[in-house]
C-alpha cells in the first residue's frame, strides 16, 4: 500500500511562501512616495520565481518520499511471502531440535526467497535530507544583495527659468542634480544608507558630494541607531525629503532649510550618532529622534558639517518628538524639536563662536488628497566672542498641496526674519531676511517622471533691499 506524507512538505511550502512574501514585501524604500507600480511588478516577478523553485523542490521531495514508501511496501510483501513458505514446508527435524541458521546481515538477500528491502539506501536518505535542508535555508535566510547585485535608485532634474531656482543670479536653462540612492541589505539587523549626489554649485560648476553615509543597527521596530552623516532630524521637511526633487510635490525646498551649499541657513546635515524610532500609544503613534554629533562651522559664507571631525567648537545635540493621529484625524502629525550647537566662523581671524539654540514646531496633514505642511523655528543665539548678547530670530513656512489625479497644484508662503546683529546669520551669505510667495503645479507624466511649474516672488528685507519674480520649469525623474 502506498503511503505519502503531506505534512512536512506542505508545512515547508507554507512557511517558505510566507517568509519569501514577507521578505520581498518588506524591502526597505527610501520614502513612501517612491513606491510605484514598477516596483510592485518587480517584486511579483521575484515572488513567482521563488514559488516556482519551491514547487520544483517540493515535487522532488514528494517523488523521493513516494519511492521510499514503495520500498517499504515491497519489503512488507516480501516478508509476508517468506513467512507463508516457511509454514507450508515439511519439517526435517523434530520441533525444538532444529539447528538455527546463522543470522543474515541486515539487508542481505535470503537464500531461496526474494531479496528483502532494508532501510532506504544511504544516497536516497541523504538526498531527501539535503532537499529538506535547502528548503529550510531558503525560508530562513534573508535576501542578500550580492545574489543579484545591489539595487541602485536614482533621481535627476533639469530646468529652465527667469532665474535659477537655487542661485538667482543665473538665468535660462540649467542642470540641477543627479542623485544616486543606495540601501544595501546587510543582514537581519544591520542597516545602511548612502546618497551620492552630482550637483551644480553656486560657481556654476558640477561637484560631487556624499550627502548621506550612515550605517545603523535596528534593535526592534521601535528603535534604530545610526552612525555617520545624516539629515539633521529637526522639524519635518528636512528628513522627509532628500536631494531627489522628484519625491516632493514642490519644485524646490523652502529657502532657509535648503541644503547648506544651496544657501540654507540651518545645519541640514550632521555627522554623528542618531537614535530614531516610534512607539504605539493606544491608537496613536509616538515618533522620536535624538542625536549628537560634530558642531558645524562657517567657511566661505556657508555652513559646513565637519565631515572629518572638529578641531574647535563642540558638539551638536538635539531631539524631535512627534505624534501621528488616527481615526477622524488620520494623516495628521504634530511635533516639537530643539537643538543646540556652537558654531565657529572661520572666515575671520581669530575665529568667532556663536552658541545656537533652536526650538521648533510643525504640523503635517498628509492623505491621499492633501499634503499640507506648516513648520516654524525660533533662534536664541548667543555671541560667545564679541559678547553682544543673545539675539532672537525666526523662520517658517506654510505649504498646501492638493493631489487631484495626475495634477497637484500647491501654494507656499515662507519667511525668514534673521537678526543681522547675530554673528551666526551675519556671517552667512544667505543669512539675510526675506519672504517669498509661490504658486505651482506638478504634473505626473508617468510613474517615474514629473513636470513642475512655479511662479514666485521673493523680497529681501534687510542687508540689501530688492525683489524679483520667477517663472520656473523643472523636469524631474526617478529610476
Main attributes of the structure:
single chain, 479 residues, alpha+beta, 16-stranded antiparallel barrel, 6 helices, 18 strands, globular
Description of the structure:
- The chain is built from 6 helices and 18 strands.
- The protein is an alpha+beta fold and 479 residues long.
- A 16-stranded antiparallel β-barrel has the order 1-2-3-4-5-6-7-10-11-12-13-14-15-16-17-18.
Averaging pLDDT over every residue, what do you get?
81
Helical segment tally? Answer: 6
The 3D shape can be described as: globular
Percent range for helical residues? 10-25%
Alpha carbon gap, first and last residue: 59 Å
Q: What is the radius of gyration computed over CA atoms, rounded to a whole number of angstroms? A: 34 Å
Read across the widest sheet, the strand sequence of neighbours is 1-2-3-4-5-6-7-10-11-12-13-14-15-16-17-18
Q: How would a crystallographer describe the biggest sheet?
A: 16 strands, antiparallel, barrel
Question: What's the number of extended β-strand segments?
Answer: 18
**What share of the residues does DSSP label as strand, in percent?**
35-45%
Low-confidence stretches: 1-35, 77-122, 141-148
The multimeric state of the shown protein is single chain
Topology pattern, helix = H, strand = E: HHHHEEEEEHEEEEEEEEEEHEEE
Summing up helix and strand content along with how strands pair, one would put the structural category as alpha+beta
Amino acid at each position: 500500500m502506498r503511503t505519502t506524507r503531506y505534512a512536512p512538505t506542505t508545512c515547508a511550502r507554507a512557511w517558505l511562501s510566507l517568509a519569501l512574501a514577507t521578505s520581498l514585501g518588506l524591502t526597505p524604500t527610501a520614502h513612501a512616495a517612491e513606491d510605484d507600480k514598477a516596483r510592485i511588478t518587480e517584486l511579483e516577478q521575484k515572488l513567482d520565481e521563488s514559488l516556482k523553485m519551491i514547487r520544483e523542490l517540493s515535487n522532488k521531495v514528494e517523488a523521493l518520499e513516494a519511492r521510499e514508501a514503495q520500498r517499504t511496501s515491497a519489503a512488507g510483501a516480501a516478508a509476508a511471502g517468506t513467512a507463508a513458505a516457511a509454514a507450508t514446508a515439511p519439517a526435517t527435524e523434530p520441533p525444538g531440535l532444529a539447528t538455527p541458521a546463522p543470522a543474515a546481515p541486515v539487508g542481505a538477500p535470503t537464500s531461496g526467497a526474494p531479496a528483502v528491502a532494508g532501510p532506504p539506501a544511504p544516497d536516497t536518505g541523504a538526498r531527501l535530507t539535503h532537499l529538506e535542508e535547502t528548503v529550510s535555508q531558503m525560508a530562513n535566510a534573508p535576501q542578500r544583495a550580492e545574489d543579484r547585485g545591489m539595487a541602485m535608485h536614482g533621481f535627476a532634474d533639469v530646468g529652465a527659468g527667469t532665474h535659477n531656482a537655487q542661485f538667482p543670479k543665473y538665468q535660462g536653462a540649467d542642470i540641477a542634480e543627479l542623485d544616486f540612492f543606495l540601501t544595501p541589505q546587510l543582514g537581519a539587523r544591520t542597516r545602511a544608507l548612502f546618497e551620492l549626489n552630482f550637483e551644480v554649485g553656486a560657481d556654476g560648476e558640477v561637484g560631487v558630494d556624499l550627502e548621506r553615509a550612515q550605517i545603523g543597527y535596528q534593535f526592534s521596530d521601535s528603535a534604530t541607531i545610526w552612525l555617520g552623516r545624516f539629515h539633521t532630524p529637526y522639524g519635518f521637511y528636512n528628513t522627509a525629503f532628500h536631494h531627489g526633487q522628484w519625491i516632493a510635490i514642490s519644485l524646490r525646498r523652502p529657502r532657509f532649510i535648503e541644503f547648506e551649499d544651496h544657501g540654507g541657513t540651518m545645519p541640514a546635515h550632521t555627522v554623528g550618532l542618531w537614535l530614531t524610532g516610534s512607539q504605539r500609544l493606544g491608537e496613536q503613534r509616538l515618533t522620536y529622534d535624538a542625536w549628537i554629533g560634530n558642531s558645524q562651522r562657517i567657511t566661505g559664507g556657508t555652513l559646513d558639517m565637519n565631515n572629518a571631525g572638529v578641531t574647535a567648537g563642540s558638539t551638536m545635540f538635539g531631539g524631535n518628538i512627534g505624534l501621528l493621529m488616527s481615526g477622524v484625524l488620520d494623516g495628521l502629525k504634530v511635533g516639537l524639536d530643539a537643538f543646540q550647537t556652537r558654531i565657529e566662523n572661520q572666515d575671520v581671524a581669530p575665529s568667532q563662536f556663536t552658541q545656537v539654540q533652536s526650538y521648533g514646531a510643525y504640523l503635517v496633514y498628509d492623505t491621499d488628497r492633501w499634503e499640507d505642511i506648516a513648520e516654524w523655528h525660533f533662534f536664541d543665539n548667543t555671541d560667545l566672542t564679541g559678547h553682544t548678547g543673545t539675539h532672537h530670530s525666526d523662520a517658517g513656512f506654510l505649504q498646501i498641496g492638493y493631489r487631484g489625479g495626475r495634477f497637484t497644484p500647491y501654494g507656499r508662503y515662507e519667511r525668514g526674519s534673521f537678526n543681522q546683529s547675530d554673528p551666526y546669520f551675519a556671517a552667512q551669505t544667505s543669512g539675510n531676511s526675506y519672504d517669498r510667495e509661490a504658486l505651482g503645479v506638478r504634473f505626473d507624466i508617468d510613474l517615474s517622471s514629473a513636470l513642475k511649474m512655479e511662479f514666485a516672488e521673493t523680497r529681501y528685507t534687510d542687508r540689501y533691499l530688492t525683489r524679483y519674480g520667477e517663472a520656473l520649469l523643472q523636469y524631474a525623474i526617478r529610476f
